[in-house]
Predict the structure.
Amino acid sequence: LFLVYTASANAQVAFGLFGGISEDRLWQTELAHVGVLGEFRVRHVPGAVFRGSIWMNPERTRYTEVYGYVEEPAPHQWLALVIDERMRAIGAAVDLKFPFEYNACLDGYYKGTYVLVGLSYAQRWHTIDRWEQERDGRTRSFHVNKLISEPMVRAGFGGEWNFKWGGPFVEGLVTVSAPGLGAPALRFPGAVTLSIGYRYSFAKPLEVAP
């Protein structure tokens, strides 16, 4: 949904879906995400679009094996460490979109680029199963469940195209995260995210000047 800056414009509403991938700096891994969004414009802030969204990161697994090795009294190699991790998250965000360029498309719809800034909150689940074995065969294991609450500030750029059948868009975001895991208190970047999506606008197209 692209909105032109006219204070007299009626409120406009759109809903959409999005998905993508992010480089997560807290877990040091890549995460996929899918979500839904709703957008509308209010008369009191005619130059911006209000967006609300929710998303989830499907479970990501990471498996690590470490082998021990000694040469004396005889060469010997053994499986010394196994780490099995499972990571997933859900989140929500409120954002403001500020279009800064547009070009008229067919039938009065618009396309353009925008800046996006907002606040988000994620709930993360991290499960760790760790198994250790010493050279003499003695073993021990640990099971850890971590629940992390992560408020974030985020900003980015995007571009969108709008047609009668809806509007595809692409955007990139960078977050500043405060996961409460000790120093540093703030993680920058917390994540770098790329999303592609589709939104359908319930607004009437603006008239194209002859």
